Amino acid sequence: MEQETKSIIDRIWTNFWEGGVTNPLTVIEQITYLLFIKGLDDIDIAHEKSDHMLGIKTKRIFDEKHQECRWSIFKNYPAEKMYKIVGEDVFPFIKSLSNNKNSGYAKYMEDAIFIIPTPIMLQRVVTAIDKLKMKDRDTKMYPVFLEDEGQTVHLHRSFSAVPLRLLLSGATACAYRRSCRRYAAL
Question: Do 33 and 69 meet the contact criterion of CB atoms below 8 Å apart?
């Protein structure tokens, strides 16, 4: 992995620690939510480009009412506005994405909480995540998030990326949640 990427990941960890979020599993969970939100917007952007080239209009993840929930929109807001949008709009939006309230996704997301304590901390973390090259996020960056912080040494490398990989691969949220609980027990 490039030194620049490792430096960005170190900065993200530092932002959480300096902001008072010191539980490594909590940090990973918040990073996972933010990566998920960014990934949803990346998907919508790709669909928009394809639709424009093909001259069609497909269904979007972010409807007209939820445009401010898009990473590409809120990442440019001042810290206070970004914090308000993410806490009051983005998290409720991602929690409601599943039409089936009994789905694994809905069951997992019902417990999703936004716990980044300050607007400036959120802005710093979003800015840093935005600089990461996202094509390798599940295979290269996630283990580094776990390995770079001394307090997370107890997590075994071969298992470290499983929760994020499950989330990114579209696996059921039940599998994702079971995986996260397994790490919490380590």
Answer: no
Type of residue found at 173: A
Q: Are 40 and 62 in contact (CB under 8 A)?
A: yes
Cβ atoms within 10 A of the Cβ of 73, count? 15
The set of residues, in sequence order, having a beta carbon less than 8 Å from that of 183 and lying 6+ positions away, is: 25, 155, 159, 163
Query: What is the distance of C-alpha 58 from the center of its chain?
Result: 24
Question: What's the CA gap between 163 and 179, in Å, rounded?
Answer: 6
**H-only helix segments in the chain:** 3-18, 24-54, 71-74, 79-85, 91-95, 104-109, 119-131, 142-147, 157-160, 162-169, 173-184
Decide: 175 and 104 in contact? Cβ < 8 Å.
yes
| Burial category of 50 from C-beta neighbours within 10 Å (exposed 0-12, middle 13-18, buried 19 and up) | exposed
One-letter amino acid at 106 equals A
- Provide the residue-wise pLDDT of the chain in tens; the chain has 186 residues: 578 888 888 899 999 999 999 999 899 889 989 998 998 899 899 999 988 889 888 888 899 999 999 999 999 999 999 999 999 999 999 888 877 666 666 677 777 889 999 999 999 999 999 998 766 544 455 555 555 445 443 333 333 344 444 444 444 444 444 444 444 444
Inter-residue contact 67 to 73 (CB < 8 Å): yes
